[in-house]
Design a protein that fits this description.
The complex is a heterodimer of chains A (273) and B (621).
Chain A (H helix, E strand, L loop, with lengths): L1 E4 L16 H10 L4 E4 L6 H12 L3 E5 L6 H5 E5 L4 E5 L1 H8 L1 E6 L8 H9 L4 E4 L4 E4 L4 E7 L1 H4 L7 H4 L3 E4 L5 H11 L4 H16 L11 H12 L4 H10 L6 H15 L6
Parallel strand pairs in A: 2-9, 2-10, 3-6, 6-9
Antiparallel strand pairs in A: 1-3, 4-5, 7-8
Chain B lengths: L1 H16 L8 E2 H14 L7 E4 L3 E2 L6 H6 L4 E2 L3 E2 L3 E4 L2 E2 L5 H16 L6 H4 L2 H15 L3 H15 L8 H15 L33 H11 L12 E5 L11 E3 L6 E3 L10 H13 L2 E5 L5 H5 L13 E2 L4 E7 L4 E13 L10 H18 L2 E7 L4 E2 L1 H14 L10 E6 L4 E8 L14 H19 L2 E9 L5 E7 L7 H8 L9 H13 L5 E8 L11 H17 L3 E6 L4 H9 L4 E3 L6 H16 L3
Helix pairs in contact in B: 2-4, 4-7, 12-14, 14-19, 16-17, 17-18
The chains are: A alpha/beta (273), B alpha/beta (621).
Chain lengths: 273, 621
């Protein structure tokens, strides 16, 4: 559920293709100790951006993938049964506040409502984390930063983010990359040929146009990378697209047939004449 | 006997003369849905519907066999306008079904690939099609192979230029050249006849249509008379002609260039046709190339719908207030027309208190039980002073803090889970379409409106049992100034015999101006304080009204209204019994935002169940 990552200094920064001025904005937010909200569709690079920024700033990153059963005590910590006694164990949020670093709550709207109780005091100028179970109140160090993300595409259908929570964050909106940039990403992440990468990106953008009508969501950059990985290791492009970009997007047989026709149109037929 | 021989001969000669391969035929219905996805994916307009085209005349030379059989004058070619993409209802050009299927997708690709504006109007047919072809192939290189295959197979079917008269041969050669190497021909050589039609290309001169979607109208009209004629979906070349002047040319028949065809000004009052007459009319319409519909000051629909005057004031429902103005979206101008529609909230005058109809009492009992359990569903609440079981987490905290503080039991001993009923914070507004089309018959016994009435009854029973807040309204419209909004149950009213009386009094009204009704419902629902607000639309067809609120205008306005509702945090969901719903509802509500109920008579039972699953999902339990 939660992962901590800290790259050693010798390792290179992970690859990240900026979309706009988000790197600069993030740096400023960090400097002024402001929390950040990132929104954007699935697989458009939100998580990658955060890990890139954590590395750039030399901070440990505490990632929490939120789900609908995630409660405040999962973030803050709980008492565990130890050797004949109970032992307090810090949650990822508490650890980040104690030791400094970026705490990243991915898909924060998924979490239970009681999590806002612990998020709110951390996001205003108090920057404190009261832990009522241990009676402590932690003051966040200067190098602590809270980042949350959510996908506005799902918001209306299932859960929304309360305005009172939303208004506590600097917000930046992510979208899919521009075609040229996305090709760069594919070239960097996989060993695919440039021409093929370009065709994949065109196809992905075509699929994104179908959002809300035929598809719930467009093809993510992540799916593109998966597909490109398959293709670059010699897998048939049409079949790779089917597995990597079409089947993950729709369960409706007719839609799949229609989209496969599109793939055929873009990559040629897989059966030989 | 003579007649019989004639029929046999006709069948025989038609068969011989027919150049297609019926055994390899692919029909539009088989590929329609994937084709739609494909077409939109390639950049085709997502508001367009795909529909079957009628055969149109071509002026090419016919073989003697065709002349004998009296066939081959017409050909079905693809084209598109601002409402539909027209494709042949069936393709049997090639002996191989795969090729016929490929041809469908090729045509959709050609139509879907965006071309620079105006080119298709001003350029001639051959250049335009070559341009489209190269553009499509350039964009979708994977189509190359398929295109080559199609062209090879197609040219094999074309007449051999060597065997033709020189002028025709030159023309034929040019076309073949253009097919093989798109972009290489700039002009079509002149010839006495028009060239053989090219089914791989779009229509040379698509029938123009003044933005009037007559097929929809026809359908609605038929439906309102209680007959659904699915068979007749082919589109007439409806063109608008000026109404002949009283004193001037009242010549009924206009001769077209081809003597074998005639276009006729037929002033039919279709609303009075009897069933068998309609069959005949269909046959006639199939033979006529252009069916002309006059347009004078009043719209066509209003002339045919002569019986739709409003009831007199004493008879009519009680208007609750002066009327509320709402805007309407004009997609052509891309602007919101302010204060364009008037919603008139109404309350039934004749309603008398009543009990639930006998035939619904049994299902209602079952549903009530089901929904009561929903309302009373318990949930475990943690951290209570007393309860049914131990909250282990709380206990550990308690022990932990006790030991860390050194003093025993300093913490709050809230160590138990307790079972409590779950409060559903939910408001739902059911908006029922009461347009005249609900007058149609579902089966021998029930009309659509009966089904809607029963559905609303059971829906109210169920929701009352669940304890969720709910309101029920109906709507119908007669032009923009008169959108009737029938209040059946408001949020603040409690459900009782009076409400049941109003439900029993539901009767079909006029037309379906969906946008305004949705906007008003959005307003009402938006004022509720619940956490989740569900706007359920119950309908049997697409938006339409007497004025231009039909076809694309209505669809676009409704879509806008739904987007507005979403932006307000409401959850719009549509339940429809229209078999064609797949054509336009995804555009309005999204793939996940509607349900089509195939058998209308199932609706009363399905509606409460649907509500249950829907809200279950919404409330995350």
């Amino acid at each position: 559920m939660s992962t901590v990552s800290q790259l050693s200094q010798t390792e290179e920064l992970p690859f990240y293709e900026p979309q706009g001025d988000e790197v600069e904005l993030f740096m400023h937010a960090y400097e002024h100790k402001l929390p950040v909200l990132i929104k954007g569709p699935t697989g458009c690079g939100k998580t990658r951006f955060i890990s890139y920024m954590a590395d750039k700033l030399g901070l440990p990153l505490y990632t929490v993938a939120c789900h609908d059963d995630l409660s405040a005590s999962d973030l803050v910590g709980r008492h565990l049964i130890g050797d004949g006694a109970t032992v307090w164990s810090d949650g990822p949020l508490t650890r980040a506040v104690r030791e400094g670093g970026i705490c990243y709550l991915d898909e924060v709207v998924e979490a239970r409502k009681d999590t806002t109780v612990v998020i709110h005091p951390l996001t205003d100028d108090r920057r404190i984390l009261p832990i009522d179970r241990t009676g402590e109140t932690l003051h966040a160090p200067d190098n602590f930063m809270l980042v949350v993300s959510y996908n506005p595409g799902y918001q209306n259908l299932l859960k929304g983010m309360k305005p009172s929570t939303r208004q506590r964050f600097l917000s930046m909106s992510f979208d899919y990359l521009l075609p040229e940039a996305e090709v760069e990403v594919l070239l960097n992440e996989t060993s695919i040929e440039k021409a093929m990468a370009e065709r994949l990106v065109v196809l992905a953008n075509t699929l994104r146009e179908l959002k809300d009508q035929d598809l719930e969501e467009g093809a993510s950059t992540r799916l593109l990378v998966y597909t490109a990985t398959l293709i670059s290791t010699g897998f048939d492009p049409v079949k790779a697209c089917r597995a990597g970009m079409i089947e993950p997007l729709s369960d409706d047989p007719d839609t799949v047939i229609g989209l496969m026709e599109l793939v055929q149109a873009a990559f040629g037929s897989s059966e030989q004449e | 006997m003579e007649e019989h021989v004639g029929q046999v001969w006709d069948r025989f000669i038609t068969k011989i003369a027919n150049q297609g391969y019926p055994e390899a035929a692919v029909t539009l219905d088989q590929v329609k849905t994937p084709l739609g996805v494909f077409y939109r994916a390639l950049g085709g307009d997502s508001a367009l519907r795909i529909t079957a085209t009628t055969a149109t005349l071509h002026k090419a030379r016919r073989s003697w066999l065709h002349k004998v059989a009296g066939t081959g004058k017409k050909v079905e070619l693809a084209w598109q306008d601002e409402i539909c993409l027209y494709l042949p209802a069936q393709l049997d050009l090639f002996p191989d079904a795969q090729l016929n299927r490929d041809l469908y997708f090729w045509l959709a690709a050609m139509a879907g690939t965006p071309v620079p504006a105006q080119t298709h109007r001003n350029l001639n047919w051959i250049v335009d099609n070559q341009q489209r072809t190269s553009k499509t192939l350039q964009k979708y290189r994977g189509l190359h192979q398929r295109y080559q295959r199609l062209v090879r197979a197609f040219i094999a079917l074309r007449p051999d230029p060597v065997k033709l008269k020189p002028e025709i041969a030159a023309q034929e050669q040019a076309i073949q050249q253009a097919l093989i190497d798109p972009g290489s021909i700039t002009e079509l050589p002149e010839a006495r006849f028009a060239p053989e039609p090219v089914p791989l290309w779009l229509h040379p001169n698509p029938p123009h249509n003044g933005g009037l979607s007559s097929s929809n109208e026809t359908k609605d009209r038929n439906a309102s008379k209680g007959e659904t004629r699915q068979a007749e979906q082919r589109r007439r070349q409806a063109e608008r002609v000026d109404k002949p002047d009283e004193q001037g040319a009242n010549l009924g028949v206009r001769h077209e260039a081809d003597l074998f065809s005639f276009a006729e000004f037929c002033k039919m009052d279709r609303s009075t046709e009897e069933e068998d007459d309609l069959d005949q009319a269909e046959g006639i319409a199939n033979d006529i190339d252009k069916m002309s519909v006059t347009q004078d000051n009043t719209t066509v629909a209003s002339r045919i719908k002569f019986d739709l005057d409003l009831p007199s004031e004493e008879e009519d429902d009680i208007p609750l207030n002066e009327g509320i103005l709402y805007p309407e979206w004009d997609y052509k101008k891309n602007i919101m027309l302010r204060d364009y529609c008037q919603i008139i909230p109404m309350m039934s005058r004749k309603a008398v208190d009543c009990e639930l109809p006998v035939h619904l009492q049994k299902p209602a009992r079952r549903l009530r039980r089901q929904f009561e359990s929903l309302a009373a569903r318990p949930q475990w609440i943690r951290g209570q002073y007393e309860g049914d079981k131990l909250d282990l987490d709380a206990y550990l905290d308690f022990r932990g803090s006790a030991s860390s503080n050194g003093s025993a039991n300093s913490g709050d001993p809230r160590l138990y889970y307790q079972k409590r009923p779950l409060v559903r914070d939910m408001a739902c507004l059911l908006l029922a379409d009461l347009s005249l089309s609900t007058d149609a018959w579902v089966n021998d016994k029930q009309q659509v409106v009966d089904v809607i009435r029963d559905s609303v009854h059971l829906f109210a029973e169920s929701l009352h049992a669940s304890g969720d807040q709910f309101a029920i309204h109906g709507f119908s419209s007669r032009r923009r100034q008169h959108v009737r909004f029938n209040c059946i149950k408001d949020f603040h009213e409690s459900y009782n015999a009076k409400i049941r009386g109003r439900i029993a009094d539901i009767s079909p009204g006029f037309y379906t101006r969906m946008g305004a009704a949705i906007r008003h419902a959005t307003d009402l629902l938006g004022k509720q304080s619940a956490q989740k607000k569900l706007l359920l639309l119950l309908t049997d067809g697409k938006p339409n009204d007497l004025d231009r609120y039909e076809g694309r205008h209505g669809v676009e306005d409704t879509r806008k209204a739904i987007l507005e509702a979403r932006n307000q945090g409401l959850i719009p969901f549509c339940i429809t019994i229209d078999e064609e719903a797949n054509q336009y509802l995804p555009y309005l509500f999204g793939r996940q935002g509607y349900t089509f109920i195939r058998q209308a008579e199932q609706l009363p039972k399905r509606l409460p169940q649907l509500y249950m699953t829907l809200t279950g999902k919404l409330l995350g339990s």
